[in-house]
Write a structure and sequence with these properties.
Length: 123
């Protein structure tokens, strides 16, 4: 099975669509390693596109911060501002989706998905 593995889209719908076009027809299943949101201008569009696209996903540190699972203490000022702005933009169902993303590592069909490290999802 040919997997499309992607991560760190950070709410950039234009970049996500360009990447998907670049590899169109070359994969059978898509998985995401987190950071669906953060920084970019399209959090709702990206969350919805990712939801429709992936068969498996793990959360990233920006997904955790935006959804309130973790704080932004370790984030730089720009990242903190992006978290706050994104929270205000997300529709409730997309915020719930982010809040319910599984922590890594996630074993799926013989592939282990992680955002950070196997021992610590944020490292």
């Amino acid at each position: 099975m040919r997997l499309l593995v992607f991560s760190d889209v950070h709410a950039n719908a234009t970049a996500l669509e360009a990447a998907l076009q670049a590899c169109a027809g070359l994969w059978e299943r898509a998985v995401c390693l987190g950071d669906v949101v953060g920084y970019g201008p399209d959090p709702n569009e990206v969350v919805e596109r990712v939801r429709s696209l992936v068969s498996a996903i793990v959360r990233g540190n920006h997904d955790k911060a935006v959804s309130g699972i973790s704080d932004v203490e370790d984030f730089n000022p720009v990242a903190r501002a992006a978290v706050e702005w994104t929270r205000g933009q997300l529709r409730p169902e997309n915020l719930r989706y982010l809040r319910n993303l599984p922590a890594g590592p996630l074993d799926t069909d013989g592939v282990v998905l992680v955002h950070g490290g196997r021992e610590d999802e944020d490292e």
